[in-house]
Design goal:
The complex is a heterodimer of chains A (about 110) and B (about 110). Chain A is mainly β and about 110 residues long. Chain A has strands at about 5, 10-15, 20-25, 30-40, 40-50, 55, 65-70, 75-80, 85-95, 105, 110-114. In chain A, strands 2, 4, 5, 6, 9, 10 and 11 form a seven-stranded mixed β-sheet that branches. In chain A, a hairpin with a 2-residue loop joins strand 5 and strand 6 (about 55). Chain A is globular, with a radius of gyration of 13 Å. Chain B contains no helices and eleven strands. In chain B, strands 2, 4, 5, 9, 10 and 11 form a six-stranded mixed β-sheet that branches. Chain B has a five-stranded antiparallel β-sheet with strand order 1-3-8-7-6, with no helix packed on it. The chains are: A mainly beta (about 110), B mainly beta (about 110). Chains A and B meet through strand 5 and strand 10 of A and strand 4, strand 5 and strand 9 of B.
Chain lengths: ~110, ~110
């Protein structure tokens, strides 16, 4: 196992409420990522981090923000959840970044916005 | 937009069959290639990296064809436990923001 814990694993929330998903790693890896996976779209990058307080946007960042105050934690926040954000969210980590690097995934967080 | 394309399947094969998946990519500057396996309602897990010279791990063989811009995965002597979705992954350049996943090919191995 890659030492990645996501919480919560399952959540149902109402439209317009804020939601924060947490990713915790025990590997001390520099790079952390948030993806969402939807039928017909595959895995899409939301945001990623290349160090404490260093983050960048991915392909589908609108409506999401992230924070990384410690190496081991990467938080994904939906400021005002919408039904289009119903999805499964995967956190991932990698040691060095760049080509040739392997990415490991957490078990996923299933979010339903009603 | 940089694309990675896979046949979504499903590929329905009997136990013991040999099955092959292809994945095409659009950017010739792609540097690294991987195959991941994803079981239903589980996270993707690394199956194998793909090297220019081709590589084999037991019943699994991965190959890269840079001229035609595709990677392949061959599974020999299919087992029921091979049933899953197989994702190809391409990394462009040195930034982790340039990692692109295919949508996956679903394999179902039947008794």
């Amino acid at each position: 196992d890659a030492g990645i814990t996501q919480s919560p694993r399952h959540k149902v929330t109402e439209t317009g409420t804020p939601v924060t998903l947490r990713c915790h790693q025990t590997e001390n890896h520099r790079y952390m990522y948030w993806y969402r996976q939807d039928p017909g779209h595959g895995l899409r990058l939301i945001h990623y981090s290349y160090g404490v307080k260093d983050t960048d946007k991915g392909e589908v960042s609108d409506g999401y923000s992230v924070s990384r105050s410690k190496t081991e934690d990467f938080l994904l926040t939906l400021e005002s959840a919408t039904s289009s954000q119903t999805s499964v969210y995967f956190c991932a980590i990698s040691e060095t970044g760049g080509s040739g690097n392997t990415i490991y995934f957490g078990e996923g967080s299933w979010l339903t916005v009603v | 937009r940089k694309e990675v394309e896979q046949d979504p399947g499903p590929f329905n094969v009997p136990e013991g069959a040999t099955v092959a998946f292809n994945c095409t990519y659009s950017n010739s500057a792609s540097q690294s290639f991987f195959w991941y396996r994803q079981d239903c309602r589980k996270e993707p897990k690394l199956l194998m990296s793909v090297y220019s010279s081709g590589n084999e791990d037991g019943r699994f063989t991965a190959q890269l064809n840079r001229a035609s811009q595709y990677i392949s995965l061959l599974i020999r002597d299919s087992k029921l436990s091979d049933s899953a979705t197989y994702l190809c992954v391409v990394i462009y350049g040195g930034s982790q923001g340039n990692l692109i996943f295919g949508k996956g090919t679903k394999l179902s191995v039947k008794p």
